[in-house]
């Protein structure tokens, strides 16, 4: 990467932060429903990446024991279980399915 591209990316990142702080922030303060929805975007993006990494291998779909563990974790998160319970339950379900399969 050249110095110019690094400088341009830095300016773009700071510009994006300034737009969010001074334009989008005050606009969302007037619309609490949109503010709540915008607050969920980072979690949705992270979950989409987790799902993609769990069920895709290259360009093919993989349905295996990891999907069962992730499904249990999703239900427990939805039911607002403590984080340690979510992780342990997902690990137990995944390990159990792996033991049954092979």
Describe the structure.
The model has no long low-confidence stretch (mean pLDDT 90). 82% of the residues lie in helices and 4% in strands. The protein has a domain at 1-30. With 102 residues, the chain is mostly helical. The relative contact order is 0.06. The radius of gyration is 20 Å and the shape is flat. It has a two-stranded antiparallel ribbon with strand order 1-2. A hairpin with a 2-residue loop joins strand 1 and strand 2 (60-61). Helix 3 (65-78) runs antiparallel to helix 4. The N and C termini lie far apart (47 Å).
List the keywords.
2 strands; two-stranded antiparallel ribbon; 4% strand; mainly alpha
Concise overview:
The chain is built from 4 helices and 2 strands.
Secondary-structure blueprint of this entry?
Layout: H1 3-29, H2 32-55, E1 56-57, E2 60-61, H3 65-78, H4 83-101
Antiparallel strand pairs: 1-2
Helix pairs in contact: 3-4
Shape: flat
Uncertain regions: pLDDT < 50 for 5+ in a row? none
Measured distance between first and last alpha carbons: 47 Å
Number of helices: 4
Number of strands: 2
Major β-sheet profile: 2 strands, antiparallel
- Write down the secondary-structure element order: HHEEHH
**Biggest sheet, strands in spatial order?**
1-2
Helix content: over 70%
Structural class: mainly alpha
What proportion strand? under 5%
Radius of gyration: 20 Å
Mean pLDDT: 90
């Amino acid at each position: 990467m050249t110095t110019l591209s690094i400088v341009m990316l830095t300016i773009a990142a700071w510009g994006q932060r300034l737009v969010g702080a001074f334009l989008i922030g005050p606009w969302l303060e007037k619309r609490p429903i949109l503010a709540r929805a915008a607050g969920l975007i980072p979690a949705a993006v992270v979950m989409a990446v987790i799902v993609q990494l769990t069920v895709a291998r290259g360009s093919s779909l993989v349905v295996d024991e990891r999907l069962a563990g992730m499904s249990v974790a999703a239900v427990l998160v939805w039911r607002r279980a403590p984080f340690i319970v979510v992780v342990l339950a997902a690990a137990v379900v995944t390990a159990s399915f792996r033991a049954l399969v092979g």
